[in-house]
């Protein structure tokens, strides 16, 4: 979109709009897997991340009530050895700030506080809620799970409804200082791992972020919140009640949580297409393939989308090549993102089994450590395809 707003309708390239009036990412962590680190490195922005990230040694899935490890997936240095890139943890605000700064350095113009009302796909014209119009050669809709770009330009025949899961998630952070002051939980910041306690319809995923300065906790549980809202306050006592039969380490950790944000967990059905009929509007990220967070891949897939799209656009000689480039982009990306979307849902079902025969079988398979693992994240075959992906060549690479 353009920021050149002379007569309210302009032709422009290289600018982007967002609904928020300022950068305002919530205070929570996000995992950055090797497949997205590959893109950050290729674009030469990875060095900026070094001082903000944490490198966990393992992802440890634990039994919810005892904390006994069920499955340990080594991450550092194993991911770098296997896939050439590390597995990282970062604060969302830092991630957003670093990417924003990198874009500014490239000369991208941002125009914040612009809510899109609709997009005319035949002319690639974005209409804001204020009535302002911007026309471009190409519109890329990265406007999240409740995308207006999708609903008005790419899949205009219906309003695509997100599928709310029966779960939502509380998010909270605790300072390193506070963690260290409590001997029952201090090990969680000194022994750096992603820990995930899994139980019936609930799990707690926790890891240090901001170079160890904060401890990030995600608590998935049955409940409802508003789809697309990232900052709804949750009730701390209600939150603790959800985990009252969890490992004493988790319960002790939760005594340090003073406030929580509540997010609904939802995904999208498979869309019929990601590119508008005119070939001038495309979707990326959650607008195209919002997924449940049980593979920690939603943002990683958005990063991959961006890389593949840029690669295809790079091949264009003139604007008449754009439609073909977008079709290629969709062809290369849609199936992979939808497979991961389905894998994430499946992982949630596997993590959230009730105690019983099926859960015992799952635990035995997880402990077998033979490469196959019911946890998609840890299953060797799926993991190679997931983390070894090169979004520039659309193939996976592994040294395993
Ligand atoms: C609990 C949880 C944990 C997660 N953990 C991970 C993880 O560890 N790793 C990972 O890779 N992913 C994770 N994800 C997924 C990740 O957060 C999302 O996939 C990612 O944020 C999607 O990015 P996006 O830019 O496509 O959409 P969003 O982050 O939703 O951004 C959409 C943007 O569009 C703007 N917008 C919306 N409507 C309009 C409009 N009408 N006009 C203009 N602008 C508009 C919004 O203001 C926003 O800035 C997690 C998700 C959840 C819920």
How would you describe this protein?
The chain has two domains: 29-58 and 71-161 and 269-396, FAD/NAD(P)-binding domain; 163-267, 2-Layer Sandwich (D-Amino Acid Oxidase, Chain A, domain 2), CATH 3.30.9.30. The protein is an alpha+beta fold. The protein has an eight-stranded mixed sheet with strand order 5-4-13-14-15-12-17-16. It is globular and about 60 Å long. Helix 10 runs antiparallel to helix 11 (322-351). It has 13 helices and 20 strands. 32% of the residues lie in helices and 24% in strands. Flavin-adenine dinucleotide binds at residues 18-20, 30-31, 114-116, 142-144, 148, 169, 218, 263, 265, 285-287, 293, 296-300, 302. Residues 34-340 form the FAD-binding domain. GO terms for molecular function: FAD binding; monooxygenase activity. Keywords: FAD, Flavoprotein, Monooxygenase, Oxidoreductase.
């Amino acid at each position: 979109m353009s920021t050149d707003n002379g007569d309210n309708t302009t032709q422009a390239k290289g600018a982007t709009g967002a609904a928020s009036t300022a950068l305002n990412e919530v205070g929570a962590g996000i995992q950055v897997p090797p497949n997205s680190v590959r893109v950050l490195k290729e674009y030469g922005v990875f060095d900026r991340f070094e001082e903000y990230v944490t490198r966990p040694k393992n992802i440890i899935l634990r039994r919810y009530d005892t904390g006994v490890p069920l499955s340990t997936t080594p991450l550092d240095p194993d991911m770098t050895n296997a896939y050439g890139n590390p597995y990282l943890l970062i604060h969302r605000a830092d991630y957003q700030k670093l990417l924003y700064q990198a874009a500014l350095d490239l000369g991208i113009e941002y125009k914040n506080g612009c809510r899109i009302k609709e997009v005319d796909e035949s002319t690639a014209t974005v209409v804001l809620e204020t009535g302002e119009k911007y026309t471009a050669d190409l519109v890329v809709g990265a406007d999240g799970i409740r995308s207006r770009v999708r609903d008005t330009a790419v899949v205009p025949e219906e309003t695509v409804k997100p599928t709310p899961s029966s779960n939502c998630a509380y998010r909270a952070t605790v300072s390193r200082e506070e963690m260290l002051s409590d001997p029952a939980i201090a090990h969680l910041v000194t022994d750096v791992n992603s820990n995930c306690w899994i139980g019936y319809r609930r799990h707690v995923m926790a890891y240090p972020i901001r170079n160890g300065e904060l401890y990030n906790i995600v608590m998935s549980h049955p409940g409802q919140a508003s789809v697309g809202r990232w900052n709804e306050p949750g009730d701390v006592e209600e939150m603790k009640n959800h985990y009252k039969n969890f490992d004493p380490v988790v319960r002790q950790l939760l005594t340090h949580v003073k406030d929580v944000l509540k997010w609904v967990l939802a995904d999208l059905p498979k869309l019929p297409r990601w590119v508008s009929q005119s070939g001038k509007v495309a979707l990326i990220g959650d607008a195209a393939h919002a997924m449940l967070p049980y593979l920690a891949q939603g943002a990683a897939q958005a990063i991959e989308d961006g890389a593949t799209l840029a690669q295809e656009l790079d091949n264009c000689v003139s604007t008449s090549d754009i439609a073909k480039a977008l079709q290629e982009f969709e062809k290369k990306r849609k199936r992979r993102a939808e497979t991961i979307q389905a894998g994430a849902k499946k992982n949630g079902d596997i993590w959230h089994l009730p105690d019983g025969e099926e859960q015992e079988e799952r635990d035995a398979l997880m402990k077998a450590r033979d490469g196959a693992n019911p946890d998609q994240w840890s299953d060797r075959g799926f993991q190679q395809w997931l983390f070894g992906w090169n979004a520039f060549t659309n193939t996976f690479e592994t040294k395993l």
